[in-house]
Design goal:
The chain is α/β, with parallel strands linked by helices. It has an eight-stranded mixed β-sheet, with helices on both faces. Strands 4-3-5-6-7 form a five-stranded parallel β-sheet, with helices on both faces. β19 and β20 form a beta hairpin.
C-alpha cells in the first residue's frame, strides 16, 4: 500500500498558501538549495563514540559530499523498486546514515516512518503492519544487538515488507544474514545521478505529499501513526528556527532521536532551513555529550529537563567542562522547573528555551527574548492571539488557540480557569493514519483537541500556563489536582532531581496523592520533610502528598516522557 498524494484538502492548501503561511517549498528542494549555496562547508558530523557503538569510525561530510551520497542511496532505493508514496520503516541511530536515508527517500517521494532504537520485534511488527511498510532500513549492529537480524526474524509477520536493508559504513565489518540487502554510503556514479535526476524531473514532489509517519509516544494508549507533509513540517519549523534564532553560523548538537517533533523539527529541519552544522549524538552518553560541546564548539543543543537539573546539582562536574561556546539550550517534553531554568541563566549565562510540542502539530516555545524572566519562561507559554501582544516568532501570527471547558464546551476567556487547549493553523497535521477507524482528533470547528489542560495567565492574559494532561488529573475527594503543578513545586526542593506525581486508588476519596522522586547524590528526603517544604509554599492541603516513593530513576519512553502508566504498575498503591 502507498500513501495517497495530498494529505490536506485542496481548499485548506489554497487558503494557507494565499496567506503566506504555506508555500510550495519541499524539504528536498531546500536541501538542494543549501548544497548549491554551501557546498564546501561542513554539513554534518557523526557521533564521537560511533566506533564503540557501530564498529566504524565517525565521519564528517560537507554539503556536497553529503549530497553525493544521498544521490547514490536514492538510486539504490529506486533500484529496489521503491517509489512515490511507499512507506519505508527506518530504525537507525543518530548518524550520518540516518540523515542520508531521510534525504534520499524524500528525494524520490518515499515516506519515512522512523522508529526508536529501543523498539524491538513487538513494536516493529505493530507499526510496520499499521503503516504497511514496503521496506525496512536498519543498522547491521547497535551495541551488542543486530537490529537487521531482529527485523528479518519477524519479516513473515509483515507481509508488505519486500526488502530488509542493512545500511551503514560498517556493513562489511559484520557478517550479514543472507536475506538482508546490504548498502553502504558511497559517492554517486554518473549513471546514478542521471537516474535520480530523471526521476525527480518526471515526478517532482508536491508540498502536500506525505514526508513522514511518526508515532505518538504511547504514554496513554497504543501509539498512533501521524502522517505529516512538507507543508506542515516546514511551517512548524519556523517556530524552532525563530525561538532559538538559528542561523548558518550555528553548530547544532543533536542528542534527541530523530523520530518525532523534538528531533526532526527541533534540530534536523532547522539545519536544512539555515545551512548550519549538524552534530549527531546517540545514544545519550553524558561524557561524550559534554566533550562534543567543547570539541565541536556547539552553540545550541537540546536536553531533557532531568539532565539539566542533574548537571546543576553537580558543581564538581560542571567545573571541569567547557560550555563557553553554548549560548542556548532547548528543553521540554515535561514541564520545566523554575529553579532549573533560573540556575542555568544565573550560573552559566545560558538561556533555556521552553518547548511544548506534539507530533500532531502543537508548537509552543518560550524564548529568552519573549520571556526574559526565567521563572516566567519555565512556567508559561505564549498565548497566541492575546489582544495587543506581539511575539518574536512569525508562527504566532498563524496559529489560532482556544481553551475549551470540557464540561460545558464553552470557550474560556478568563484567567485561572482550566480548559483543554485546541488549535488550528498551518502547523497542524491532517489526521491519523487509518483515521476512519479512530475517533477524530478535531472538534466540530476543525480545531485539534490537544488533550492538554491550560489556563490563561499574566497581567494581560498573554500567557498560557500548562496544568496537565486532561487524563492525568488526580481527583481526591472530588477536588482536581494537576500533577504538573505539584511536580513543579516538588522539583524546587534542593534534594530532588526528578519527580512524578500519580494518584493512588483509595476507596474513600477516590485517589490520594503520591510523589515518586529521584534524589541528588548523597541526599535523603522523608515524606514529612517534603510535606513541610510544600506547606511553606502555601498550597492547598488537599494537594499534599500522602505517600513518597524514592527511586534511582523514573521510567521514560524513548523521547523522555515519564511513563506514568508504567510507574503506577511498578509502584502500586
Amino acid at each position: 500500500m502507498t500513501m495517497a498524494r495530498g494529505l490536506h484538502p485542496a481548499a485548506r492548501v489554497a487558503d494557507f498558501q494565499a496567506r503566506g503561511w504555506w508555500t510550495d517549498e519541499t524539504v528536498d528542494r531546500l536541501f538542494a538549495e543549501q548544497v548549491g549555496a554551501r557546498g564546501d562547508h561542513l554539513a554534518v558530523v557523526d557521533p564521537a563514540n560511533r566506533e564503540a557503538l557501530l564498529g566504524s569510525p565517525p565521519r564528517r561530510l560537507t554539503w556536497s559530499q553529503l549530497s553525493d551520497e544521498v544521490t547514490h542511496l536514492a538510486a539504490r532505493l529506486l533500484g529496489l523498486g521503491l517509489g512515490r508514496g511507499d512507506v519505508l520503516g527506518v530504525q537507525l541511530p543518530n548518524t550520518i546514515e540516518l540523515v542520508e536515508v531521510y534525504l534520499a527517500a524524500w528525494t524520490i517521494g518515499v515516506v519515512v516512518s522512523p522508529l526508536p532504537m529501543q523498539y524491538r520485534e513487538h513494536e516493529i511488527v505493530t507499526m510496520g503492519t499499521q503503516a504497511s511498510f514496503v521496506a525496512f532500513v536498519t543498522s547491521p549492529r547497535f551495541g551488542g544487538r543486530s537490529p537487521v537480524a531482529e527485523v528479518l526474524g519477524v519479516r513473515d509477520r509483515m507481509p508488505t515488507v519486500e526488502h530488509v536493508v542493512a545500511f551503514g559504513a560498517d556493513v562489511e565489518l559484520h557478517g550479514m544474514p543472507p536475506d538482508a540487502v546490504c548498502l553502504q554510503p558511497l559517492p554517486a556514479t554518473d549513471d546514478e545521478r542521471a537516474l535520480v535526476t530523471e526521476h525527480v524531473s518526471a515526478d517532482p514532489n508536491d508540498a502536500n505529499d506525505a514526508l513522514t509517519i511518526c508515532w505518538t509516544s504511547g504514554t496513554e494508549s497504543e501509539p498512533k501513526g501521524v502522517p505529516r507533509c512538507h507543508l506542515d513540517w516546514l511551517a512548524v519549523t519556523w517556530a524552532t528556527v525563530d525561538a532559538p534564532g538559528v542561523t548558518a553560523d550555528d553548530v547544532l548538537l543533536n542528542p534527541f532521536p530523530m523520530i518525532n517533533m523534538a528531533g526532526i523539527s527541533g534540530m534536523f529541519l532547522p539545519w536544512i532551513r539555515t545551512g548550519c552544522v549538524l552534530v549527531q549524538h546517540h545514544p545519550f552518553d553524558l561524557p561524550t555529550f559534554l566533550a562534543q560541546i567543547a570539541t565541536e564548539r556547539a552553540t545550541y543543543t537540546v536536553a531533557p529537563p532531568a539532565l539539566l537539573s542533574m548537571l546543576l546539582h553537580n558543581e564538581a562536574l560542571m567545573a571541569k567542562v567547557d560550555l563557553s561556546s553554548l549560548t542556548r539550550i532547548g528543553s521540554g517534553s515535561v514541564p520545566l522547573q523554575p529553579a532549573m531554568v533560573r540556575g542555568w541563566q544565573e550560573k552559566h549565562g545560558i538561556g533555556i528555551i521552553n518547548f511544548f510540542g506534539s507530533n500532531e502539530g502543537v508548537g509552543l516555545l518560550s524564548s529568552p527574548d519573549d520571556f526574559p524572566d526565567p521563572d516566567e519562561r519555565a512556567r508559561f507559554f505564549p498565548r497566541f492571539g492575546a489582544p495587543d501582544v506581539k511575539w518574536s516568532t512569525r508562527v504566532s501570527e498563524w496559529i489560532d488557540v482556544r481553551l475549551v471547558d470540557l464540561v460545558t464546551g464553552d470557550d474560556i476567556t478568563a484567567p485561572g480557569v482550566p480548559g483543554e487547549m485546541r488549535l488550528n493553523g498551518p502547523t497542524v497535521f491532517a489526521g491519523y493514519l487509518n483515521g476512519a477507524a479512530r475517533p477524530s482528533p478535531f472538534d466540530d470547528q476543525g480545531y485539534l483537541c490537544s488533550g492538554d489542560l491550560f489556563e490563561i495567565a499574566g497581567d494581560q492574559g498573554q500567557f498560557l500556563h500548562y496544568l496537565d494532561r486532561a487524563r492525568d488529573l488526580v481527583i481526591r475527594g472530588g477536588m482536581n489536582i494537576a500533577p504538573a503543578e505539584l511536580e513543579g513545586l516538588i522539583a524546587d526542593h534542593p534534594a530532588v532531581v526528578d519527580v512524578a506525581v500519580i494518584g493512588d486508588p483509595d476507596d474513600l476519596l477516590g485517589e490520594r496523592v503520591a510523589a515518586v522522586v529521584s534524589l541528588a547524590p548523597g541526599e535523603s528526603l522523608t515524606l514529612d520533610q517534603l510535606v513541610a517544604f510544600l506547606r511553606n509554599k502555601r498550597i492547598a492541603s488537599f494537594k499534599l502528598p500522602e505517600r513518597l516513593e524514592i527511586r534511582d530513576e523514573l521510567p521514560r519512553n524513548p523521547v523522555g516522557k515519564i511513563l506514568k502508566r508504567a510507574l503506577r504498575q511498578q509502584v502500586g498503591p
